[in-house]
Amino acid sequence: MKLCIFGAGAVGGHLAAKLAAAGHDVSVVARGAHLQAIREKGLKLIHGEKIIHGRVRASERSDDLGPQDFVLVTLKANMLGAFADAAAPLLGPETGVVFVQNGIPWWYGRDLPRLDSGGRLAKAIAAERVIGGVAYSANAIEEPGVIRNYVPGNNMIVVGEADNRNSERIQRLRQALEKADLSSPPAKDIRAAIWSKLVQNVGNSSLGVIAGATVDEIRGNPQLGKLASTAGAETRAIAQAHGIALESAPTRPSGGHASGAVGHKTSMLQDYERGRAMEIEAQLMAPLAFARARQVATPTLDTLAALVAHKAAAKGLYEM
Description:
This protein has helices spanning 10-21, 32-41, 80-86, 120-124, 168-179, 190-211, 215-220, 222-241, 267-274, 280-293, 299-314, and strands at residues 2-6, 25-29, 43-47, 50-54, 57-59, 68-73, 91-100, 130-136, 139-143, 146-149, 156-161. The protein is of the alpha/beta class and 320 residues long. A seven-stranded mixed sheet has the order 5-2-1-6-7-8-11. A four-stranded mixed sheet has the order 4-3-10-9. Helix 6 (190-211) packs antiparallel against helix 8, helix 8 (222-241) crosses helix 10 (280-293) and helix 10 packs antiparallel against helix 11. The model has no long low-confidence stretch (mean pLDDT 94).
């Protein structure tokens, strides 16, 4: 299968290395020192005691790579405009585009213009190409070209059509992921997987940035742990108010949705510390818009979102 990973960072690099090692024709779009290292040595994935080497084609220009069977877009939600501008050369007549991201995706179906500024994604990607994706996986770039996975044996990539059809292409994609040691169970409702991860992540992500804390530090502090739990409960209430059956969301190989990587910094904290633009709109502000639409009270989420947005804006990482 011909696959492009657009944005071969921590999660994307993990996917690319495993899919390439499984025998697929994998290309990646990356940049800078990371791109140079991949070109010279391929991708190295540290996966528990295993080292997985993925030989991939790599470029910063999508027109070097040509049409694909699937494009897996693993950019942060706030960086997707770059994909909209570069997508066309990767798209053949049947190419599916899988948006693997945290938070509420741009294609979800509500009027959330800040998730697709100027409608660039909607113009570039026809609705019938769109596939939803949710990654349950803890990774980090150790050095250019080297990815470390913190949860070997407990990674999951949930994919699904926006209308939840069990289409032939979804079955092919799930099979490819499964054969590459990436659990990809069927999803009755891709939106349930999206909200299920939000319930799990929203408290840890926001408190991680505010307190500069890892997941275990948050859980180990009674006050922070209580705030994280309350934020998750409020997020669950929002989902339920919109008819989302969270219990239908697939679970990881170990059961449940938690990664087990409690010493790991959330991706939002990693972005803050490295001075990268942050996914505040998709992970915090969009869920709050859903809350307001159903008049769900979210006092804890309101406070956490305001604090994170202020802290990020002060560093130039989020535009209020």
